[in-house]
Batch of 3 targets.
Target 1
Amino acid sequence: MTENIRINNPNVKYTDTHIEAQYCYHTTAVRRDGDTLTVTPSVSELEFRTERHVPRLGVMLVGWGGNNGTTVTAAVLANRLGLTWRTKTGEQKANYYGSLFQSSTVCLGAGPDGKEVNIPFRDLLPMMHPNDIVFDGWDISSMDLGSAMERAEVLDWSLQEKLRPHMSHLRPRASIYIPEFIAANQAGRADNVLKGTMAEQVEQIRADIQDFRHSSGVDKVIVLWTANTERFCDLTAGVNDTAKNLLAAIQSGGEVSPSTLFAVASILEGCAYINGSPQNTFVPGAIELAVERNVFIAGDDFKSGQTKIKSVLVDFLISAGIKPTSIVSYNHLGNNDGMNLSAPQQFRSKEISKSNVVDDMVNSNPILYHNGEKPDHCVVIKYVPYVGDSKRAMDEYTSEIMMGGTNTIAMHNTCEDSLLASPIILDLVLLTELCQRVCVRPQGSETFQSFHSVLAILSFMCKAPLVPPGAPLVNAYFRQRACIENIMRACLGLPPQNHMHLEHKLQRGFLPRHDNRIYDNVATKRVLSNGYHASQQNGVLRLDGEYL
């Protein structure tokens, strides 16, 4: 935590090991009585406790040799080494643009002049810096990361030349390969695969995690799937419906996807597991196993380009009282992800995750949408090898407006796919690691508890967020971001950001803030003799023409 930030509140206590904060959580319960909605506010007293020590973090990527895996590894190395390189537009410098925690800010409060004080998101609480992450992982391709980076064609060549000596010695571990779960066109890459039974493969993944933990000296390991999209796995009673049945299915060689096998191995090793692809990795048995072992899981599918815009735009339209009636999303891309998605079953997994992103926003407005009504929603993905990692996304949003009118918004988005996904990978592991150091104790309870094993706070980074059973599913972009910010503020005993700015909207001030004067006189503009209006400073001008 930045040394210059310290909470001046008797309800917040700093020890050598923890930040302890008393927090009042306000909610409202609503009950329908005929035509009347009865609203009951309530307050819960909570104590947040956050470990201040940031451990050494290891991240193991499934699909380490793919476009995302090589790009995120290269980005961290480039930032750690402080690399610069030249392109046709001039000198470039390594950065973490696109990362919520490294490149965006939050409002901490108001300063003496009444202006907002914004700080980097990462400075709210003690957080791991991406430069300190240690990477390892698996891939069905044996290609070293230097060569895989060249194959991906994501980074500028001059940068690749500087990174190659640092990446060529990095080689992925052998991975699990079950051909029927991914497209047949991936068989040519599969020269680095584990042998043996399904149970033996899970044991090998566990051994790999143990080996990495011990050889690298990291304090904790997080495993993240950034490999190929798989087809959906059938949900079958007696196979994957419970943790016991899932473990038995692995022993007997039943239908279990590679991503679920990695999830099981990670959970058994006590490592958080994040699914960055759209398939249903977290079958009921995997979720039950995570809950039993008190291990975090999160997913599904990185929300990076077209879907992130959709979660903003549809939220804007519906919040403004405009009714989207047709959403058509077209994509074409030429990287290996696009090649894999050219197979129908793998495309279906992606189609589902990209289509469901608007559901909660539609359901929130019964004025615009009757029960069961929703917009027509079509998603198209095509494989065009020439464009490589530079994905093209075209969207058309047609909406009903006042008095039978229509409004159409069309947009074109060129996404550097892996350069958008890589900072999201970093944010996912950084926030997961932070959540492992936070616990909460309700008033009257003797023990602290952690977050639910299904780590829904990571929804901001996912197309199809996984939430605990019975929890509301939120896809709206700004609600998801506010959730992260306000939970982190709660860890410091700070109230949630309400954006009311009430102290600036009343005739008379009421805040006991030093050197932050609230003026009773309404600011006015004077007409000067030359016919021009006097400019205003801070919005306040005294009637005698002097600035305050």
Target 2
Amino acid sequence: MKKIVPIGFAAIFLATGCMDNDTATNERDRIQNQLDPNNELQAPADEELDNRLGYVRYSKEQINNDTEDQRSMRMDRTRMADMITRTMLRADAFEEVATLVTDEEVLIAYEKSNDTDKEKATQIAEKTAASIMPSYFDIYATDNTNLIDDIQSLHNSTTTEGDYDNTIEKIIQQMEESK
């Protein structure tokens, strides 16, 4: 028993002596982790995170590393279409809205409220999409409710499939004719 106690103390002494006490390094790593935008990509746990400002800071060294070469910019077209549709429906001018976002166009078909002017509804739809999407997108909007189903028929298409181009062109042509 007398031999076990000194061995135990020696083990504890060695374990505490090997601990990391470099608080400056730990503090720097903690701050760097807070500023890493990849940590922000996860769904917010509470509303407070939704209200935070966006900020990133990188050094040239961080951007030039190997993993950075694998990054690419992407747009979630479904989320963009969802954002446009929900924003439009918050206005009293619309009863139903269908939105399709391709790699070049935004197609919006809607059912307007009875008390809303056709031109005003189209203007609201186009301005809503323009305020959300990058400026290089062509935006088409119509109150032709028959096109809602046509737009919906493309919801499973991808931008790499070329077979939907003809359908998109026909829908755009019908939208232009209904103005």
Target 3
Amino acid sequence: MDEEKARARVVVHGVVQGVGFRYFAFRNATIRGLKGYVRNLPDGSVETVVEGDRDMVADYVEQVKAGPRFARVTRADVTWEPFRGEFETFEIRY
């Protein structure tokens, strides 16, 4: 497994608020040992920023693009950024 570190920012659009999306993202990040956050945005989208091992971040991004069972993701904007190591945990922000 490639142990290179990575960071991704994903903004997910569609029916993604009020369907358990943040908890879904939290669970998927923590089981992969990733750090960062997920939060609802005022426009109805969900933003997540995540850091960790590149393979785990890539897997997380694919899970978030699919979304939880009751979500309907219409678009996911993924931005790969340089790893910063700025997070100690993964959190749901309110």
